[in-house]
Design goal:
By secondary structure, this protein is mainly α. The chain has ten helices and no strands. The chain is elongated.
């Protein structure tokens, strides 16, 4: 009896196990339209979170009221003279627009850190979405909170005597400039939130950044009254440039230098910190 050896052809060979699906980690594979759709969906998710937790809006609603009342009635008489609070309102209100941006930006870093603690960000990183879309969606919603805070600040300022000496378009330009600079600052605080371990550490580091920049600027008082070394610091302080730009847009005066300096600072901060923040977001464990 003869035996025949049957050789299996490649067709008869058992199918190989399917290759594991590729993760869409590389943002270059995600088109612009899909990226925008992801940002919109994530922004909606963040906005719904605020709706479910209205207390998260307390800083955006009450900080502008407290700050404008506090600084006008505590410092207004000392700087502009007793009974001249109206003049100080026109000085400090544009500066406080810059301050609002920094305080809202600090909350972004705290929120990012808290989301990682809860495991929310780990779920996002398993999805086939651009990593930057998660962070950009966060910034989009925080810009909305910043707009609300600025609107409340200006509303209170008008009640206290703020007067627009230019035009409504100039006022909108000042608001837009504040939004652009505030958005750039959010990348700094996102990076801090992704780097340090706790929300308390984020707040501590943020205050170390905020305090010198806010009080070593032209937000609250003219820099000509400061010592020479501090006046030099305020000249290079981006908050001084933003405060001066917003102030001159509202009250009238030369704006080109301060506007371009503010936009330059915003661009430089974003170019440096945004890629670092996205990279840290990818690698954070």
């Amino acid at each position: 009896m003869s035996t025949t050896t049957v050789t299996k052809s490649p067709v008869d060979a058992p199918d190989r196990a399917p290759a594991p699906p590729r993760r869409a980690d590389a943002e270059g594979r995600i088109g612009l339209r899909a990226n925008l759709r992801h940002i919109g969906a994530l922004a909606r998710r963040n906005a719904l979170q605020i709706k479910q937790d209205p207390e998260s809006m307390f800083d955006a609603v009450f900080m502008p009221i407290i700050f404008i009342l506090l600084f006008v009635y505590v410092f207004g008489g000392a700087i502009s003279g007793k009974g001249n609070n109206d003049a100080y309102v026109n000085y400090v209100a544009p500066g406080l627009m810059a301050m609002m941006g920094m305080n809202i930006a600090m909350a972004v870093g705290v929120g990012i850190n808290d989301d990682f603690k809860k495991g929310v960000m780990d779920r996002f990183r398993t999805m086939p979405i651009a990593r930057s879309s998660v962070l950009i969606a966060k910034i989009v919603v925080e810009i909305g909170r910043m707009l609300i805070a600025t609107a409340i600040l200006l509303g209170m300022s008008f009640l206290l005597g703020l007067t627009i000496h230019t035009s409504v378009l100039h006022l909108f330009a000042a608001i837009g400039l504040s939004m652009v600079f505030g958005a750039s600052l959010m990348w700094i605080f996102i990076l801090i939130g992704l780097t340090v371990k706790t929300a308390q550490a984020v707040q501590g580091m943020a205050m170390m950044v905020l305090m010198p920049l806010q009080f070593g600027s032209s937000i609250f008082a003219p820099t000509t009254t400061m010592p020479g070394w501090l006046e030099t610091f305020t000249d290079y302080n981006p908050l001084s440039n933003l405060a001066d730009a917003a102030r001159n847009l509202i009250n009238g005066g030369p704006v080109a230098h301060s506007v371009w300096m503010t936009l330059g600072w915003a661009l430089a901060i974003t170019v440096v910190t945004a890629p670092l923040a996205v990279s840290k977001f990818r690698k954070k464990t």
